[in-house]
Amino acid sequence: MTQIDMLPPLREVLAAHDLEPRKALGQNFLLDLNLTAKIARQAAPLDETTVVEIGPGPGGLTRALLAEGARRVIAIEKDTRCLPALQEIADAYPGRLDILSGDALAIDIAQQASGRFKLVANLPYNVGTQILLNLVTTALWPPQWDSLTLMFQREVAHRIVARAGDDHYGRLGVLCGWRTEAEILFDVPPQAFTPPPKVTSSVVRLIPRPAPAQASLATLEVVTANAFGQRRKMLRQSLKALGGEALLQAAGIDPQRRAETLSVAEFVTLANLVDQRRTANSKEG
Ligand code: SAM
Question: In terms of CATH architecture, what is 10-208?
């Protein structure tokens, strides 16, 4: 195993701080510094960069980000048992690691970064999906972040990058595809983690599109929720409450199609038409 810094191996860190992994916090640690370095490199270049890391745990990925040259890392960890181990890393990289103790879902990440940032994380998938959605649906666009490099269960990773016609295509794929370019970089087998999870994981990178097609996020969410809420039904049925057949014909979309066949651009067209029709109706009324 390559020595990336002068700190002790992660197994020793776990033992020294009595860091028995806790299932309730989704703790599957990466102890191979070659692998954490490989993940950190996906977010390169890191010099001149503020990196927000969520869920640093004992700090394997944190150490890799600092060793790769990140100017500043802000690490947000919910488990207070990890704080002494993280403090040792902060001491080894003076002035470059800020440790925030708390629940990342309750913290305003953009405000903490107070400028441009990249986000890198190996998180429990439910927390990761919520943080991803929060960052992709931010009101301000282009956003404050330059990239998101995130580990997910492989199935969730496939949902993020899915396009029309893919089995995994749904709301997550439409929202991520609308505002970002998302790609799966590589898989990580269960044995790479301590303890090993049941399924394979994948590292996903998302880059914001500078100018996604204009649409109201709220309306796009309603259209995708309706369309995929009854994904086996024809759109004229699943979108009935939003205008059904007339709406689809106005958009030039065959009403007999199903949600999973619609491209992101077609969802955007539908959302804009729904808004236009609402505005027209409210003027008439
Ligand atoms: N990044 C470390 C690694 O790769 O070895 C730890 C990964 S472990 C899968 C997930 C980490 O996220 C744990 O340290 C856990 O305590 C932390 N965590 C879980 N939920 C969190 C939350 N809501 N906010 C911040 N950290 C959280």
Answer: 3-Layer(aba) Sandwich (3.40)
Nearest CA to ligand 1 atom 20: 25
The protein residue whose alpha carbon is closest to atom 14 in ligand 1 is 57
CB-ligand 1 contact for 78 (6 Å cutoff): yes
For residue range 162-220, what is the model confidence (pLDDT) as tens digits? 999 999 999 999 999 999 999 999 999 999 999 999 999 999 999 999 999 999 999 99
The alpha carbon of 28 is separated from its chain's Cα centroid by a whole number of angstroms, namely 18
Q: Each residue of 41-97: pLDDT tens digit?
A: 999 999 999 999 999 999 999 999 999 999 999 999 999 999 999 999 999 999 999
DSSP three-state, residue 156: helix
Residue 1 has pLDDT above 80, yes or no: no
* Of 149, 125, 124, the residue nearest 27 (C-alpha): 124
3-state secondary structure of 34: helix
Q: Whose CA is nearest to atom 8 of ligand 1?
A: 27
- The reply to whether 10-208 and 217-284 are identical in fold is no
Q: Which amino acid is at 210?
A: P
| Residue boundaries of the structural domains of the chain | 10-208, 217-284
Report CA(242)–ligand 1 centroid distance (Å). Answer: 40
Domain 217-284 is found in CATH 1.10.8.100 = yes
- Phi/psi for 172 (5° steps) reads -60, -45
Q: Which of 22, 27, 30, 120 to mutate to test the pocket of ligand 1 (most atoms within 8 A of CB)?
A: 27
d(CA 53, CA 82): 14
Q: Closest Cα partner for 36 from 6, 58, 13, 14? A: 58
Positive or negative, the Cα torsion across 181, 186, 189, 192? negative
Quote the tokens at residue 198: 């049941």
